[in-house]
Structures are given as C-alpha cells and as structure tokens.
Amino acid sequence: MSKKRRDIPVFDQPIIETHCHLDYLKDRPLAETLAEAQRVNIERVITIAVSPDNLATVRELSQTAPWVYGTQGVHPHDAEKYTDAAEAEIRAHAGDDKIVAVGEIGLDYFYDNADRDVQRDVFRRQLQIACDTDRPVVIHSREADDDTIDILKEFEGTLKQRGVIHSFTSGPGLAQYALDEGWCLGFNGITTFNKAENVRDIVRMAPIEQILLETDSPFLTPVPYRGKENAPFYIPFVAEKIAEVKQLPLENVLATTYDNSLRTFFQRQ
Predict the structure, then answer these.
(1) Exposure pattern of 221-250 as b/e (b: 16+ CB <10 Å)?
(2) Is the pLDDT confidence value at 260 over 60?
(3) What is the pTM of this model?
(4) Torsion angle, CA of 83/142/156/209, rounded to 10 degrees?
(5) C-alpha distances in angstroms, 62 versus 40, 106, 145, 187, 220?
(6) For the segment 172-226, what is each residue's pLDDT rounded down to a tens digit?
(7) Angstrom distance (rounded) from CA 152 to CA 268
(8) Do 8 and 215 meet the contact criterion of CB atoms below 8 Å apart?
(9) How far apart (Å, rounded) are the C-alpha atoms in residues 7 and 223?
(10) pLDDT score at 206
(11) What is the enclosing helix (H) or strand (E) of 211?
C-alpha cells in the first residue's frame, strides 16, 4: 500500500517564487499550475531565461498574469550559442516592466556543456549588461567557485545591484564571499534531500536576511514529492525546511524571505 504524501501547506504569509522555468513544465497546463500556486499563497513567480531560444518565450510568459515576471540571460550550458544578436536582445529587454533581472548566467564546470573560456567570456559580457542597465543578477555556479569569485571581483565596483547565487550547492568560500558582498543565496528542494548536508551547512551559515526561496522547477522536487515534476506550488516545503535547519520560527522565515525577494528583484515595482 502506498503511503499518502502530506498535503502542501498553505501559510497566511505570501511567498515569492524567485526561480522556476515555466516553459519547461509538462505535467499540467500552465493555467492549472498558476492556479495551484495561487491556492497555496504564492504571490509572485519569476520564470527564468536560459538560452537565446527562450528569451522571447520568457517575455511572453511574463505577460500571462500580473504576478508572473521573467529574466533575460543565457545559461553557461548554452554559452556557445551566445551571439551579438542575443546580447542585443538581452540589452533591449533587460529594462522591460515585467523583466526583473539579468540571468540565468554564470559558470558550470560540472557538465562542461560549453568551453570554459567561452563560459567565462559570456559571464563577463552579461554582468556588463547588468551594470549598464542597473539590473540585479541571477547566477548559476557549479564546480566553479574560484572563477565565479574572481569574475565577480572584477565587477564589485561597477555592479550597482547584486542579486542571487541560485540553487546554492557550492562551498563555504563562495558563500562567504557572496554574503560579504551583499548577494543573496537561493535554496530549493535540495535542502530537503537526505544527502544534502553540505547545502544545509550553508543554510546554517547564511543570515536569514540573505536567503531566497525557489524551486528551480521542474527540477529538484522537494521531499515528500520527489519523483514528481517540480512546480512553484511546492515551495512551502522549502520554507519549512529552512526554518527547521535554521531553528527559526516559520513565520520569521516566511516574512524575511518575502522581504528579501522584494528588495532583490522588485525595487522598481
């Protein structure tokens, strides 16, 4: 007999989903996903661009509801697809009303889907866009801590906004550098995984004032729904785990991460 999964909790304090990929969700119609997110008091959703091929798609998705927003950027996996035309498109739309950040950009030396020199060049070029357009940044960094720090140091004086290192799975060195420089760290369902004590260690060291909640859906579905496609409406489980790990009242975690999200992405709204 299968064990029934616990229902998704619904909290009085609204939550902002700071990182998902709505165009990758396949299990149900978008309208149904958004309705379920609203049911569990998700107040805003940020859907993230990753490729020249989905920049326009993300902009279109950001228009599907007043509370859906997007980003513009090229992920390190697709760094070799980055062109002057893609850069011009990101620049042209970085300041759109429903676009809240440049991203998802960064370095990924785990999969190495693109040449590392190309990744570093594309990372720098997009950080420059953020500098020039005064936008926050959504960073992906995997197995690339040292180079991520070195490149961010190049922009310390010119990057007016900071942003988030999302789905944080890196070491304490990058975490401490980012925290000292005013970045937020994004945490998702990984925090609920049995073997992710290294991530929970970073949760413990990060001030709650610099933590953002995300799902990175359709990936990284939190316990107790692992095995199912992830979606924004599972984010309450992430909030619960952050509260447990940090030994803080859940109400504190919800209110503070909500304020963090507003401060990071919605100062212009």
Answers:
(1) bbbbbeeebbbbbbbbbbbbbbbebbeeeb
(2) yes
(3) 0.97
(4) 130
(5) 20, 22, 31, 22, 23
(6) 999 999 999 999 999 999 999 999 999 999 999 999 999 999 999 999 999 999 9
(7) 24
(8) no
(9) 12
(10) 98
(11) strand 211-213
pLDDT, position 268: 74
The rounded Cα 216 to chain-centroid distance in angstroms is 6
Burial class (CB in 10 A: 0-12, 13-18, 19+), 58: buried
Q: How far apart are CA 138 and CA 165, in angstroms?
A: 6
Question: Per-residue pLDDT tens for 36-47?
Answer: 999 999 999 999
- The chain-wide mean pLDDT, for the chain, equals 97
203 token code pair: 């949760």
pLDDT score of 169: 98
- Structure-token pair, residue 48: 């993230």
Residue 106, helix vs strand vs coil: strand
50 φ/ψ angles, rounded to the nearest 5 degrees: -135, -15
List, as one string, the DSSP characters of 149-169: HHHHHHTTTT----EEE-S--
Whether the Cβ atoms of residue 185 and residue 179 lie closer than 8 Å to each other: yes
- pLDDT tens for each residue of 212-254: 999 999 999 999 999 999 999 999 999 999 999 999 999 999 9
Beta strands in 5-76 (DSSP E): 15-20, 42-47, 68-72
Amino acid at the residue 125:
R
d(CA 118, CA 13): 42
Q: What angle do CA 194, 23, 147 make, to 5 degrees?
A: 60
